[in-house]
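Deviation from plan, reported transparently: 6-O-phosphono-beta-D-fructofuranose complex.
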Amino acid sequence: MCPCALVPLCPCAPVPLCPCAHLSVFFNTFELLNSHFMKRIENIGVFTSGGDSPGMNAAIRAVVRTGIWEGFDMYGIYRGYEGMIDGQIEPLYSHSVSNIIQRGGTILKTARSKRFMTPEGRQQAFGNLEKHKINALVAIGGNGTFTGAAEFTKEYEIPFIGLPGTIDNDLYGTDYTIGFDTAINNVIEAADKIRDTATSHDRLFFIQVMGRDSGYIALWSGVACGAEFILVPETKTYIDNLTRLVKHDIRKNKTSGIVIVAEGDDAGNAESIAAQVKERMPELETRVTILGHIQRGGSPSAWDRMLASILGYASIKALKEGQQGVMVGLINKQIVYTPFEEAIKNRKGIILDLLEMSRVLAL
Ligand code: F6P
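Because the crystal trials were delayed, the predicted structure below was used instead.
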């Protein structure tokens, strides 16, 4: 049995069967044998894909430098899967990743590739990897990146490791994703400023934050900026309920407030929610701010640099151990490997108790 006691380990499985990916002593031995017979890794390609996130550069730096330290030749693939298909591939050296740990965005550029979703696109991409003798990959990205990776590894035998890089923090198999911490700090910096003007004018501000269909950014930034209300896709939003609570706050002498709205909320976007509340309370002065891509930019926080460094280093160690087709994450301060299929199919829920807590603390 796997130490987590969820599923038995099978000697013929090339990856752990349990999503928790705990490795037994037996399994380690098996992997050593496995890696012995495995094709030797020569050149490793690294790329970023999907929406950029602060800390991706720190991760690239860690992957490249650890790879070189371990004796591999490292290659950068530009613009994610798009660049793999178009052959935008260049060698990377230790100095190529100097002075980037503090920079937001990604020096390797990024893209969302529709062509990689086709067998023809993937075949062309594999051909380009072969040209450079790249026989292992490290991708830094989110759900879409790992969906592509899962397809690719079904068709082509290539060790492929993923690192969780997205501001949304929506990936199963890791407590935090690279970029989330910086993004929520960007949100609270803006929300604190909005609080000044909201208080001065006695207004209720609706601030829309990113997160696609996850409420992580909204919940964490909402708690951290003391928002009166936090609306997330994980719970149903009732406008009548929200209006009742706003009235309650006014009765308790609150003259202004902040509502953080996750972009995926079921009641609509911040503009539409503000309009629905205003319809019920015409006397209320409301304003809407959509933070948008400002959340994704800027120098990564200390935590994002740290996480990117730890996971980038671990990705090369994982390749050396013979891991393939897994995302490397950090859970309870432990490195955890989650097969791509598991990372894609499972959903990481938010801690709903925090919603209730935020309301109590904002009263
Ligand atoms: O996944 C990261 C993210 O920033 C989401 O929060 C957001 O919904 C999406 O990307 C925006 O994508 P784009 O930059 O392509 O508009």
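Residues 51, 142, 166-168, 210-212, 263, 296 surround 6-O-phosphono-beta-D-fructofuranose (CB under 6 Å). We consider this an acceptable substitute for the interim report.
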